[in-house]
From TrEMBL:
SUPFAM superfamilies given in the database record: Fe,Mn superoxide dismutase (SOD), C-terminal domain (SSF54719), Fe,Mn superoxide dismutase (SOD), N-terminal domain (SSF46609)
EC number(s) reported in the record: 1.15.1.1
PANTHER family, per database record: SUPEROXIDE DISMUTASE, SUPEROXIDE DISMUTASE [FE] 2, CHLOROPLASTIC
InterPro entries in UniProt: Mn/Fe_SOD (IPR001189), Mn/Fe_SOD_BS (IPR019833), Mn/Fe_SOD_C (IPR019832), Mn/Fe_SOD_N (IPR019831), Mn/Fe_SOD_N_sf (IPR036324), SOD_C_sf (IPR036314)
Signal peptide: none
UniProt similarity note: Belongs to the iron/manganese superoxide dismutase family.
Catalysis performed (reactions): 2 superoxide + 2 H(+) = H2O2 + O2
Residues that coordinate or bind Mn(2+): H27, H74, D158, H162
Annotated ranges, domain Manganese/iron superoxide dismutase C-terminal: 93-191
This protein's name: Superoxide dismutase
The protein's role, per its UniProt record: Destroys radicals which are normally produced within the cells and which are toxic to biological systems.
Length: 197
């Protein structure tokens, strides 16, 4: 069994003008695909060859972990976006956000600030902990919440430069502004509600 590159859940033009088809072509078809190809090359003929992506992430280290985790993070990220995105989340998640941050705008501000301050390459996440409490965490490079006990990823934004350099050059702040117009709040709430059940 080989690890496959999932198709994007929308056409490459669908996220314009916030995220260009050129960005999606390079980000999904080149960067994401390269992680898939490299992982399959690394696990070919090994004991991991027939394992699921999640099992590989939980058991591997080094370059195998890095490629596997980057695949999972990207798979998750694409579903955090939608052409019908933006606005506020549905009521269950919105109420949880307001309980934690006082307002949706305060949450967006903190998430954006943490994503901008996430040094180098990495990911910024909205996660849920074992007590059902939301928090914002940064991970570096290929690190993923899957390997952190007690937290469940709810939402992520990719802050590696390849995610935004074509559209925004080095202006991560502009990329974050565009990101909020694309967030798939239905997907995010589904992750939150599933974790509570």
């Amino acid at each position: 069994m080989s690890i496959e590159l999932p198709p994007l859940p929308y056409d490459k033009q669908a996220l314009e003008p916030y995220m260009s088809a050129e960005t999606l072509t390079y980000h999904h078809d080149k960067h994401h695909a390269a992680y898939v190809n490299k992982l399959n090359e690394l696990i070919a003929g090994s004991e991991l060859e027939d394992h699921s992506l999640e099992d590989i992430i939980w058991s591997a280290k080094g370059v195998i972990f890095n490629n596997a985790a980057q695949i999972w993070n990207h798979n998750f990220f694409w579903h955090c976006l939608t052409p019908q995105g933006g606005g506020e989340p549905p009521s269950i998640l919105l109420n949880a956000i307001m309980d934690k941050w006082g307002s949706f705008e305060a949450f967006k501000k903190q998430f954006t600030e943490q994503a901008i301050a996430n040094f180098g390459s990495g990911w910024t996440w909205l996660v849920n902990n074992e007590q059902g409490k939301l928090s914002i965490v940064n991970t570096a490079n290929a690190d993923t919440p899957l390997t952190h006990a007690g937290i469940t990823p709810i939402l992520t934004v990719d802050v590696w430069e390849h995610a935004y350099y074509i559209d925004h050059r080095n202006a991560r702040v502009d990329y974050l502004a565009a990101f909020w117009a694309l967030v798939n709040w239905n997907f995010v709430q589904q992750n939150y509600v599933r974790d509570l059940s």
